[in-house]
User: Which sequence fits this backbone?
């Protein structure tokens, strides 16, 4: 059976139970299956080497393999903190994690943001929406994504479609990399975190928007018939990493396609569902092209041009946008920009 077909049935199973997921055996001491009782927990962080203004998300598992992050308590110096947590001062921090009577620690080192630049860039975040027209739970995530985008223009979604008429090789490559556990799955800034959209915790998104980013992007493009000429600039206010990548996408808004719909108002399926933020084409490798290390210079710009690249057939050219973002070697997004085709969008 094809992998995507298996995922489709898994998503249907997930959707039927999406409002009542959980178990009586996964809270506090004694997490486990059957008669098994957890005797220890372990914690990992999205990163343990940060710069002031960065955030870290902590994932806790017990020795039985259960993810117990949701009912664990995180403290720094005796003060309870959230996960993800933004580190606003430099230093070495010991994060203590407790789950019932079990506990462990992890150490995070935070360095000062060193810069000789006066440049500043607006921090924006990427919401990566793994979705499909067959997925009846996906409109619920779509409603939350639209609300987030409407509430803050610095939230930029991209929809990676699976096994429907909007699927394509680039979207499949991204899906294969992230291997979402089900549909919908919404990632924040690529590998940086996953958004618990079903509870609509905007605080999760705000934590990332508060982080100070050392890079910014500008996009300029012209439309020549069925082709585009694109110039993307990556600006650097300071250097925190020289292993960076640039990704450039073409996305389409306002696409009317039938959509399975289990929970939101309207019929199931909904033949007039409006799909936005659809990844139509990646003009770089889907997971990004390496930025040469010698081009990463304080107060400098890395410039990438694309000449005469094709606009995919069958799209509504009036509803196309470009999305460009910078990510690190682990595919955690640093910053992102979007602009309509034929629009000159400067650094901001």
Assistant:
């Amino acid at each position: 059976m094809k992998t995507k077909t298996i995922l489709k049935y898994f998503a249907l199973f997930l959707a039927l139970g999406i409002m009542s997921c959980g178990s009586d055996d996964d809270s506090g001491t004694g997490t486990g299956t059957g008669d098994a009782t957890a005797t220890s927990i372990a914690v990992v962080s999205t990163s343990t080497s940060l710069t002031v203004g960065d955030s870290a998300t902590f994932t806790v598992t017990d020795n039985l393999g259960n993810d117990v992050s949701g009912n664990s308590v995180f403290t720094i110096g005796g003060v309870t903190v959230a996960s993800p947590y933004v580190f606003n001062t430099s230093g070495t921090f010991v994060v203590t994690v407790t789950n019932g009577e079990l506990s462990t620690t992890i150490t995070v080192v935070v360095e000062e943001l060193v810069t000789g630049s006066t440049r500043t860039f607006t921090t924006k975040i990427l919401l990566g929406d793994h979705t499909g027209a067959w997925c009846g739970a996906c409109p619920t995530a779509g409603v939350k994504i639209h609300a987030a985008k409407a509430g803050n223009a610095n939230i930029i979604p991209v929809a990676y479609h699976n096994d429907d008429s909007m699927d394509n090789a680039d979207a499949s490559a991204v899906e294969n990399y992230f291997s979402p556990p089900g549909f919908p799955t919404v990632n924040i800034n690529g590998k940086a975190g996953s958004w618990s959209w079903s509870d609509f915790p905007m605080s999760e998104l705000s934590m990332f928007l508060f982080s100070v980013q050392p890079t910014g992007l500008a996009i300029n493009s012209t439309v020549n018939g069925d082709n585009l000429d694109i110039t993307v600039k990556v600006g650097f206010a300071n250097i925190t990493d020289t292993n960076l990548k640039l990704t450039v996408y073409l996305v389409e808004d306002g696409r009317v396609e039938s959509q399975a719909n289990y929970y939101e108002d309207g019929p199931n399926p909904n033949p007039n569902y409006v799909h936005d933020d659809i990844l139509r084409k990646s003009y770089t490798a889907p997971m990004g092209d390496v930025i040469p290390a010698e081009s990463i210079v304080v107060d400098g710009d890395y410039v990438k041009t694309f000449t005469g690249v094709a606009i995919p057939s069958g799209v509504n050219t009036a509803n196309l946008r470009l999305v460009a973002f910078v990510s690190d070697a682990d595919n955690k997004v640093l910053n992102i920009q979007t602009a309509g085709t034929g629009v000159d969008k400067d650094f901001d």
About this structure: Confidence is low (pLDDT under 50) at residues 1-30. The longest strand covers residues 102-111. The radius of gyration is 21 Å. Residues 221 and 230 are 4 Å apart (CA to CA).
